[in-house]
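Researcher: Batch entry, complex prediction.
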Amino acid sequence: MQNILNRHFKFPLLNLILILVVTFIFMKVMKSNTRMETDLDKYMPQNHPAFIFSDKAEKMFNIKDGIIIAIENSDGIYNHGTLSKIKEITRKLEKMPEIEKNDITSLYTADNIIGTEDGMDVKAFYKKTPTSAEELSILQQNVHNNDMVFGRIVSEDETVSVIVANIEDDVFSQQFYQNILKMAKSYEGPEKLYVAGTPIVEGTMAYLGPRDMKKMVPIVILVITVILLFVLRSLKNTFFTLQVVLFSVIWAFGLMATLGIPIYAVSTMIPVMLIAIGVADGVHLYSHLDLYLLENPGASKREAVADMLKGMWKPVMMTSVTTAVGFISLLTSEVYPIKYFGLFTAFGVMAAMFFSLFLIPSGILAFGLPKRKASIQMKRSNEDQLSHRFAGTIVKYKYLTPIMTAVIIVVSLWGMNKVWINSSFLEKFEKDSDIVLTDKFINEHFGGTSMLNVIFEAAEPDKFKQPEILKAVSRLQNDVENLPLVGNSFSLTDYLKRMNMVMHANDEAYDIIPDSKELVAQYLLLYEMSGDPENLWKVVDYNYTNANLTFQIKSDNSKVIKDVIARIESHRPELEALNVKINFAGSGYKALVFTDLILEGQIKSLLMSLGIIIVLLSLMFKKMSVGLIGSVPIILTTLISFGIMGLLNIPLSTTTALLSSIAVGIGIDYAIHFIERYRIYALETGDKQATIRQTMHHTGRAIVFNASVVIAGFLVLLFSVFPPNRTLGALVSLNMFTSLVGTVTIMFLLLYKTNIYFRNKKGL
Amino acid sequence: MIRKIQVVILATLIVLPVLSFAMDKISGLQIIENVYNRQTGNDQQADLTMSLINSRGDERVRTIRQFTKDFGAMEKKIMFFKTPADVRNTSFMNWSYDDENKDDDQWIYLPALKKIKRISSDSKSDYFMGSDFTYDDLGDRHPSQDTHKLIGEEMINGENCYVVESISKDEDYMYSKTVIWIIKDKWIGLKKDFYDEDEDLLKTLTVKKFEQISGYWTILSTEMHNVQKNHTTRMQLENVKIDTGIADNQFTERMMRRGL
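Model: Structure tokens for the complex:
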């Protein structure tokens, strides 16, 4: 150790400068090479069968997410002014370069299939905006009589109408959204206009989350700085502890930029993780230094640093390696952004270790030891008393801790049962935000803003002209529409039923699928002759081999979507008997699969990292039992974290799932520091009481400092305007707290009771 | 001296094309009128094969037997589907009128329903049977509806063509302009570009085959390619017979029901 110190810390200032230079280079690269990935499709594993299928189906049937503009006139929409506005907005959207003309649906573009005395008409509802009362009332009647429009494009109370513009996934930008909002607003009065839809919800979320994070992280750092100042009682120490954290973040993002890997939404969690983890090393190092100086008031800075490194290099290294392993295990995920998240956080953790072992000692050597006030002496003994009494209490009431732990485990397990997964984007927004309110408004008046596509595949052409298959699809539609949050459904059957009725003089008895395959084929030919066949290719493919059924759902909540899917699945046997396969497609479905994938990967990597960490701990401390005891706080933290989420009805999402990594990363640090100190004192003193007293005093104190710094920092996130970031702040704080408590109570008690590090002595 | 020669050459180059047009004395309007007035016979019967090809290369083929007859102020047409089998004997009748203000009359007979229904289509901008042709593209547009301008001459497939640009007098017309290449001595359009409301190229019509049948230049094979949707329609005529004297009563509801 002395060798290393001499070799590497001969010129401490040079160390600092070297680190600064590399950091500066990374910052330069970041500036020129950092790219944010906003296209959500890029996050999905492209070769997963569900995504391959959905992408194929989306192309085949031109399935795109729609931006919905709703126009409300409380006196009804059937007046010249409102109808003109619908027409003008439609025309303006058609001219936008981001939107393809055929992808706009409104009362102005819709086809009206109507029965006449001697035939059938497919007409626009209006071309020139009607003015006279008579024309207006005819239009009103036409809409009312057409199921394909009434309740879908015009609300049933006739006060709201929607204009839907379907756009490609990569088209949405905040600029585009603002343009549409501005355009919509310009038509206000007396009408009210609303803008909603999946692209807006997704796009705004992808933009709001990181933006809010950008705003909050500096405040988090500020609060941490203040608390560090308070805890470390030194400007210098605080400065270097912060440098460790900040530099590790810069190195992580710098490496990312150097390798040309874009920043994904999850990557914005990397600073959060590194702040929570990186502070620990500094706190423990300086805490050790403090205690050493307390016991050796006359020591030189070189002696002090030597002792600090001698006592701490091992736990700092061990904690960093185990934490990094926890993150590396995320490489097993199928989702690339998560893999990168794991990889670069692990790199950041290792960088933080490097800085802790080089930057902090170099800092002390270059700028001197922290100055101390005399009054500290007094406080120290108070702390000593406190920690001693605490350890005594734990040991004295030896049943209390295990019982409490058991109760907590049971409650957590019960809570975990209630944990549910939610891929909803909408529920990430404030309940009273414009986005949520608009969505609610549109859902109240129409079928629903969330879409689920069911894709039917038959092996041969013309299958979707067969009445028995069409009838099975129609039955499925009727059955699923009975679910409370399912608004509408739309498929080829709706065209056929409408035409059958119209061709039978609007007799409602014929609002059914005809019995003859020839008649179906002839209706379809008729539709092609008189309507806009482009519309047909959204529900069936060119050769009538595959068909697309769209459900409109009033929520994008995963539970709701899963219920709908389950109901659809119950029709699978019936359709498979007809040689028709069922699959799902669309952005909502992809989000659902994606979230499941992330969680599945997360649970896999969590179990894996737990296993690896137990092995590593066992190897490091050369005892299997220590490995097991050391893992207790992590397991508890994870259990409680999931338990609380279940109890408080916080759903698992991509953000909250990743938090289990932090539980492992931090929980293990506390355990390692504690066990290492315990071992050293045990060997030094051979006295169990002295060992627990000194360990509590030394490490217990550092852990409490560490936890309070990070908890205070992350509680700041509770003031975030973006709800997922609030959840994040609360859960990180909670994890820190449970890790702390778990370490100094149940783990401490286990160490004490198992007599590890004392058994051999007794044997002697 | 050399300067002077240069000036003369330059002047000639500028003036000559203008002069040559002036000498030809043919205007865009005249060219289009010549095409409009080209004799095509009084009646025609043929087998039509219509192939629709979408952007993914899927193809659907329909075969139709069709009869057309000119009745002076109106033209009547009747079509019978031969394939696909599930629409066999579905028939379609169309009467179109020279009077621009009068919409076409259309009937369809669905054999599975055993009923004739009148259908009415909103406008001439509707696509014909899911093809890339609108009713307007298929019909004869009267030259007076557009402003025509001769914009050049070009050789296409070894044919000397006039290039004429036509812009509708009606502002709401579906095309902002069309450009047509017309074979000089035959008055047959060989190629036509259609531009959408935003003045972007929308479709290109190419004539693949034309022959003289019973003394009339007759277009036998065309291809319409919608470049924006990447959708193509091919129409091929076979067994074309002209002026066979189709009876007037061929174009009735009774004949629609009878089928082929």
